Amino acid sequence: MTAHHDPTTRTAALRTVQQAKEQRRVIAGTVIGTSIEWYDFFLYASAAGLVFGKLFFGPLGPQASVIVSFMSVGLSFLFRPLGAFVAGHLGDKWGRKRVLMVTLVGMGASTTLIGVLPTYASIGAAAPILLILLRLVQGVSAGGEWGGAALMAVEHAPVDRRGIYGSAPQIGVPLGLLMASGMLTLMTTIAPGDAFMQWGWRVPFLLSVVLIAVGYWIRHGVEESPVFNQIAELKDERKAPIGVLFRKHGVLVIFAALIFAGNNAAGYMTTGGFIQSYATDPEGPLAFERGPVLLAVTGSAVTWLIFTLIAGWVSDRMGRRNSYILGWILLFVGVVALFPLVKSGSIGMLFLGLVVLTVGLGFTYGQQSATYTELFPASVRFSGVSISYAIGAIVGGAFAPTIAQALLNATGSTQSIGIYLSIMVILGMVATLLLRDRTGIPLGHGSEEEQSRSPLVFVKSNAQ
């Protein structure tokens, strides 16, 4: 019998085709699902800089209302660890897929409800209270989303393509920013001036209900992670994965969190709405129209997406650690150049400043899913990546717009903001240098002993 007719060969070929098809389905489900989640999350942040200060916190006065509005953005980050703890625990016990379905619905429902929420002028203090409560639901949902999406992408990936596969949930962030800024830009055209403040801002929030239905349908067709299936077959789900994580890998969680914090602080200059608020402030030095600023942010989201994909691809070739080191150097240049370019008084230069920033943002973000997945053992991996991500988001991004606004108010200059962002980048670089490269480490449950060896350079590699 020739190889062409060998049933074993045909079965293997069919299995390869089916595996490739499932991998493409996972990537599509991951990209679309995380894009929708971050669309919802960033829509609030952009609206905080443009709308919520006046409509929900207006009685506090012009400066205080903006700061409190940005604080409501950051407040949700304090609840992301709760989402990460719950999702990590359930994800390591019950699977990645179930958790992702719940977080998607939670995020979409809260976003849609914000779109119908009465303002302070209508119901008084109840309006900002309800707004903040819905933002907290977004925070819990976001805390559980990323870890599951990262593991689904990387644990399904071929060993030599984990970086590029893992960039799928990462590009959900710039895609979410692209969609959020794009929808707000469109609404400033359809409903300019007072109409935007009256009803135009609500339309992008209401659109979320349609996006969630699409995302739920796509994710429903994705198979569970093969690594979790292996754990489940061996009946070895951890009864208390979070306890094991902090007992054996607590220091690693802190260093992994610092890596993300360095990226997140710089990223939240746009995703947190600070640049939008600074550039459109009628009392500020620039006083640009909303439309052109939102268009510039939308354009920079495209370049962020591109460099995120490139970083994932590069990390498969030069290793996660080396690609991060390159990224920190590029991001340092970006944060130093940002405000001098933004303050030049030209929309074109503002856009250039954002583009330069996104080069480093992409190169310190595209490889994160693969990096985090390779850091933690399979049995506590969902908990490890989710909690590290959530803590990093608090340290880096949670109050970055609030800190930036407070520094601007205190000093009257953006130079202090540049120094703050530079310090955060340096922290990320130091944390990276203190971790060994784990590119290509086996991810299956059968390699748990190798995975449990500490990647920290100051800890012996044969012990945790």
TrEMBL record:
Highest taxon in the source lineage: Bacteria
Subcellular location: Cell membrane
Its membrane topology: Multi-pass membrane protein
Pfam families given in the database record: MFS_1, Sugar_tr
Domain Major facilitator superfamily (MFS) profile residue range list: 26-440
UniProt keyword annotations, A-Z: Cell membrane, Membrane, Transmembrane, Transmembrane helix, Transport
InterPro entries tied to this protein: MFS (IPR011701), MFS_dom (IPR020846), MFS_sugar_transport-like (IPR005828), MFS_trans_sf (IPR036259), Sugar_transporter_CS (IPR005829)
Lineage, uppermost ranks: Bacteria, Bacillati, Actinomycetota, Actinomycetes, Micrococcales
Transmembrane segments: 66-87, 99-123, 129-154, 175-193, 199-218, 251-271, 291-311, 323-341, 347-366, 387-411, 417-435
MF terms (GO), sorted A to Z: transmembrane transporter activity
Protein name (record): MFS transporter
GO cellular component terms, semicolon-separated: plasma membrane
